[in-house]
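From the shared-data thread, chain only:
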Amino acid sequence: MSNPRVLVVLDASSGWSRGALRGFAGVAHERGWTFLHYHPTADLDWLMREWKPDVSILPPEHYRELSSQAKQQLLISINCDRTPEGIASVCVDEKKVANIASAHFLAKGVNRVSTFRFSDSPFAVEREAHFRESAIENGALVEPGWWKDNAVPPRHFEDPREITRWLVELPKPCGIFACCDSWARVVARYCRVANVRIPDEIALLGVDNDTIECELALPPLSSVAIPWHTLGREAADLAYRALAGMSITGKRVVVAPLDAVTRRSTDVLAVADPLVVKTVGWICENADRRLTVPAVCRALGTSRQRLERRFRAVLGRTVMQEIRRAHIETAKRLLSSTSLDLPKIAELSGFTNQVLLSVAFRREVGVPPGAYRRQFQGEQLDDD
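Structure, as tokens:
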């Protein structure tokens, strides 16, 4: 089909939609498509009837508003699974998002968690449910979240008094998993109102790694990064197949999250053992140089046997495992946020050379350092 007409309906005010739009637009321009982007407030039935797109990409909340005639056109759902209705869909792997979030709190010693969402949107319901399941599997205590579906009386979208009360009454310390960054920033605001300290009393984690939302939050927000740019390109790939005459009916594409990006809002170790807290802090502060367990014991003035026993009892891991974790976390931060070459990153993250960094990184993270960096570089384009 020459010069196909492709319609994308997305609100460009959020980080996720901007990322998806850029990913899709990049493919559209490469292939020479006539690409039209509209805000969801547009009259979609009129638009589809008058402009006659060959393919339309729609967000989840607007499909149900279409007329039955419009629904017969070639549609692709983005960020919501519509495959039971026969509509090709590009979705986020919500279970992996939840597992990353749960593991992030676990690594911080946070064994009491809760959740925050503002609606019964499918992504939020699924994300919250998977997080609760994962947290319980990891042995955490799960406190009630703020939002309740079908509550009597109904929850208001933002109820200052009730949110503040909920935060004050949560047992501390506690980790709160907010289903997206904009909602996490709401939690941060009400923590300040309620004089609840982040991260000491509440460790706060969002989703999207929207740099604007994360950096506006006080303190800056840790977040699970999702490759929205990739999600947009996957939607464009479905559109390409459809335009080429291939059937995409009911096809489901799932995009995995990248990783948890750590900022100040979860910079805490919520354990009662002062020796373990002090040791982990010392390891983090010195993760830019090569560390050994004997060196750590000398610095903390304790025996290896005593320190190992306390680490296993409190964190469930050895001192050496904590050293490796700190080195890898340092490398991840440098790979995702700088343009330093791999030899320099190896030096700054406590590895004697690039080869050792690559071997350890692939073992712990599952991908080589270069691939990890490329994943983040594609997303950083969306925040220019």
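The chain has three domains: 5-92+228-257, 94-226+260-266, 274-383.
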